[in-house]
Design brief:
alpha+beta, five-stranded antiparallel β-sheet, two-stranded antiparallel sheet
Length: 173
């Protein structure tokens, strides 16, 4: 069993480590101009704020409408936010010829949209591929605005795909 002195010492060490993290975050925030540019700082997996090394790309992921998305933004050269959404596998012809046709039509219908399109990749994965320039650099607000513009443009297509997938699942039951 741990003695009270050991528990206190461990707690003090954790407290000092937390204070060091906060002090580093405050130091970085004092040195950065506002609005904070995300390509200057990064958040580590342990939750620490660190300076981003020059040329280190900005990456993040999220779930939208039950689909995983991955985003990447180059921090050198032309600033473009690249977005890849995973809709799932293209249905087999035998299992759902209508569903397969739908996703092929979806790919064609979105091929001329300005912000992105749906694509069927070699391994039969249906993906949303989009690229957009954030309007005000790499600030959190600018990135969210650019991402929202893409997701809103594709909202009707997501809804159609969801209804086709729901019908496919209902047909299996």
């Amino acid at each position: 069993m741990e003695s009270g002195a050991n528990k206190s010492s461990s707690w003090d060490e954790e407290q000092q480590a937390d204070e060091a993290k906060v002090n580093l975050a405050l130091e970085i925030s004092r040195e950065e101009e506002l609005p904070l540019q995300l390509h200057h700082v990064r958040l580590t997996e342990s939750g620490e704020i660190r300076r981003r090394t020059s040329g280190e790309d900005l990456t993040f992921s999220f779930i939208h409408r039950g689909m995983p998305f991955a985003c990447e933004c180059k921090t050198t050269g032309e600033t473009k936010l690249k977005i890849v959404g995973e809709l799932g596998k293209l249905p087999f012809t035998a299992e759902s010829p209508a569903g397969r046709r739908f996703f092929r039509h979806l790919e064609t219908a979105t091929s001329t949209l300005p912000k992105g399109h749906f694509a069927i990749i070699n391994d039969q994965d249906v993906r949303l591929l989009a690229e957009i320039a954030p309007p005000q650099g790499l600030t959190p607000v600018s990135i969210i605005a650019a991402l929202s513009a893409v997701l809103l443009e594709f909202k009707p297509f997501f809804e159609l795909a969801e209804s086709v997938l729901a019908a496919r699942k209902a047909g299996k039951a």
